[in-house]
Predict the 3D structure of the following.
Amino acid sequence: MHTALVAIDLNEAGQWEALRPEAVAASQRGAVLHLAHVIPSHDALEPLVQFVPKEVAAAHREEMRRQLSRCRMDVPDETEVHFHLLNGIIYAEVLALADKVAADMIIVRANAPGAESFLLGPNAARIVRHARASVLVVRDAARV
């Protein structure tokens, strides 16, 4: 049995729609799917986070959980699907989860590179560079 980890940024419009065909193709080849969204942590903002009401943070997390679970409707019923809502540094959390679930493949979306990506490196590039599994990068065709 194969395992595919699909890293979805639910805050990015059209992200799941772009990744869905690859996730469905993996499931049709018998893969167990792990659908994951990482709520990013921003260490520089930590002092401000204490001023965000707990109810607001909880409501945001619940909305992300709902959006992630809606993705289930788009894959074949017989597919085994697991959901992961994580907090932290996006690429680090994706890589750690890939190791934890023994993913054979990680599926991510990447926008067309901009000047800033040559200095900072986007999450997708870091995942590709450090992953132990194969990584399928789905390009944003509208921006290429």
Notes: The helical segments are 15-28, 46-49, 54-70, 90-100, 115-120, 123-130.
